[in-house]
Amino acid sequence: MSRVGKNPIDLPKGVDVKLQGSLITVKGPKGELKWSYPDGLKVSVQDNSVVVERQAETKLLRALHGTARSLIANMVAGTSAGYERVLEITGVGYRALVQGQKINFTLGYSHPIEFQLPAGISAEVDKKQTLLTLRGIDKHLIGQVSANIRSLRTPNIYKGKGIRYAGEVIKLKVGKAGKK
Asked: Is residue 26 a contact partner of residue 33, using CB atoms and an 8 Å limit?
């Protein structure tokens, strides 16, 4: 039995789960998410909690059991509380500006970079324009968008300039040694 998969998912107040065939719909105060879980798994709602069980003991279903449970738990957490990812922009003249669903970056290139945010993701920048906060209800989408933004200018290993996750530690390399 999967250690993660056997744990029930408690539903907070205001979160509703509906099952239609292999489609699970989680609706909460922040929004609604849908996911089609794999065949061979059984999802049921019992006593204000969601339980994921597998119908056979194949290697594939054992692997998917804990994954499916985690994805459903992420859906419940996202629709009730939401997710947030903070990115730090480090470098002289590096900054970001949010205009609706677009983010304009100045990252040391010869041109500004315009990044279009997908639906369901909101962004906000602090006054110094160096801390970018992404918010949404889909954990996977937040992670993918933040990875795409980070890839616009990955942190330089010699000077540390670039876009990094908040709290990410970059181990700087030593440059060339000067002549003695």
From this structure: yes
